[in-house]
Amino acid sequence: MACAQRRLGREAMDWITDFLSMGGYAEFVWPAFAVTIAVMAALVIVSRRALLADRRTLESLESVREPRRQGAPETDEGGTAGEA
């Protein structure tokens, strides 16, 4: 029984070692995964910063803009509503 468990454990370790070696291409595959993860993380960070900057810009523009009165008709440049 113990011998069978040892053999099963050894086979599992061999499988993990074979997987990690990627059929002899591990020196190319694992750095490619690392670069991909780094680029994706950088993309998330840059996108998040841009989103926050855009939100701050929007908030500052909205605070500068004069609030519209409810129910007031819009006017043309400098004119009053209803003038013909």
Description:
- The protein has 84 residues and is mainly alpha-helical.
- It has a domain at 24-62.
- It has helices at residues 2-21, 26-64.
Short description:
It contains two helices and no strands.
- Counted by DSSP, the helix tally is 2
Query: What is the count of β-strands?
Result: 0
Question: What structural class do the secondary elements suggest?
Answer: mainly alpha
Mean pLDDT value: 84
List SSEs in N-to-C order.
Answer: HH
Question: What global shape is seen?
Answer: rod-shaped
Rounded to an integer in angstroms, the radius of gyration calculated over CA atoms is: 32 Å
Q: How helical, in percent, are the residues? A: over 70%
How far from one another are the termini? Answer: 101 Å
How would a crystallographer describe the biggest sheet?
Answer: none
Strand % is: under 5%
State the low-pLDDT regions, or none: none
